[in-house]
Amino acid sequence: MAGKQAKILSDQAAQDLLFFADTTRHPDRNRVIVLLSLKAGLRAAEIAKLTWEMIEGAEGEIGSTIDVRDSVAKKRHGRRIPVQEDLRQALIALRPSSPGSGPIVRSERGGSMTPLSIVVWFNRAFQATGLSGCSSHSGRRTFITRAARLVHKAGGSLRDVQLLAGHRSIQTTQRYIDGDSDAQRRLVSLI
């Protein structure tokens, strides 16, 4: 990741972003955009290209995983991501307003949003909420950092975070993870 990294979102900033989404003309769609970034760690291009077939079970219900297929993933490195409960509820709320198949996130004209339109949407949302230094990648970076901090509670390892992120290299995953100075102080006090 060359250049400046996207900021990690605090819990309050994430809530502000979701509140903003809820006040827009398309609150259900926009809430899904935010949650796909924050709770599934998807990139803007993956959000734009995600289809209902990638998340629905055989009976048309919201499945337990998101199947990010190689065709939509960066470097054709697909993965499966468990569907977090807030995201599941947002997808269920969005589903009735969406045609039978095709993209989950649709533009006002009915087609899929482009990756650039997702990036622009996030930029406008961050500007409207006063969150500077954030980008469409902030939700993904927040997801990866939070997953890395909590993975031990789930009995997992950094390799599990790497797989959820869709990174080929553990070093790439490590570059996404933000340190926590409070945790570092607590750790040193235990030594």
From TrEMBL:
Keywords: DNA integration, DNA recombination. Residues 4-189 form the Tyr recombinase domain. It comes from the Bacteria. This is Tyr recombinase domain-containing protein. The keyword Cell membrane does not apply. Coiled coil: none annotated. GO terms for molecular function: DNA binding. One of its GO terms (biological process) is DNA recombination. It comes from Bradyrhizobium icense. Pfam families: Phage_integrase (PF00589). The keyword Protein transport does not apply. InterPro entries: DNA_brk_join_enz, Integrase-like_cat_sf, Integrase_catalytic, Tyrosine_recombinase_XerCD.
